[in-house]
Amino acid sequence: MAAEEGPGAEGQGESTLTVLVATAVNALIAVLKFVAGALTGSAAMLAEAAHSVADTATELLLLTALRQSARRPDRRHPFGYGKARFFWALIAAVSIFVSGAVFAFVEGVRTMLGGEAEQTLAWVAYAVLGASFLLEGASWVQAVRQVRTESAREGVGFREWLRRTDDPTVKSVFFEDSAALIGLVLAFGGVGLHQLSGSGFWDGLASVLIGVLLTGVAFVLGRTNAGLLIGRQADRRTVYALRDALAARSEVDQVVDLLTMTIGTDQILLCARLDFDDSLSVAELERACVDIDADLHARFPDLADVFLEPVPRADPTMRRRVLDRYGGAGAQRLRGV
């Protein structure tokens, strides 16, 4: 059975729009910040410029992720290319740290150890920071709008959707834009305190804090995408819904084991081991598997592939595997007890 192409056209298009908006905004802001950093000599401005360069590179990697993950399954990749989105999103998280956080740390420490430093054309820094905040705000609003749309569609809260989503592109843009807005506030504080005190220490401290901020964002996004690449179970509500749908079939006596894996955004692989009614003939069992497959695909659009395996519920080897994987309480929930 061929897998579906991946995320639907609507979801793919919305994610692409969110990433394109963020790419254009970050590229423009990076240029403005570098000019301001060169004119003012502000470490915080240079750190923010590196931040925007990192964000721009990240968005380009996310665009690559969207394009690669949309490819149809083929002979060499029969389950499709859905995990390409997770891979490139992981590389994007690494990019945030390498090209943004490290530069911010180095520039900040250098400035803090440099002692007194004259600040010139502070108004240029303020003007660029203000313009950047407006532009970043526009990108952030687009990301928030998509998160709210997706969370409402799935019937979960804003934070819950961010925690469990299998779309790393939107999550990456949201966290990057949120970090960018916080970074701009830190840079504003660094420039302002430098101007008031005449000490470059505050400017350098703001740069170090921006580095800490970027490190935190890179860690959160890296952990999310690493989990998806390793092979994360489908959302728990979906797992229980699949279990209930299988258990409700008249041909099925008991759901013995249920394995799911997210193989792409809005793509789930299902392997179900079922104890079928012993009275079924071979032909009836084959027909039941076909009917169950069609029913599950109709009810769960995110299902890419379904594998059904008839097994006896009393088999000791199978029972031990289930207990090892889920524990006693989990095995009972699997059976609907």
From TrEMBL:
Pfam families: Cation_efflux. It is found in: Membrane. InterPro entries: Cation_efflux, Cation_efflux_CTD_sf, Cation_efflux_TM, Cation_efflux_TMD_sf, SLC30A9. Keywords: Membrane, Transmembrane, Transmembrane helix, Transport. The chain crosses the membrane at residues 17-36, 86-106, 121-141, 173-193, 205-222. The keyword Manganese does not apply. Residues 19-229 form the Cation efflux protein transmembrane domain. Its main location: membrane. It is a multi-pass membrane protein. Gene3D superfamilies: Cation efflux protein transmembrane domain (1.20.1510.10). This is Cation diffusion facilitator family transporter.
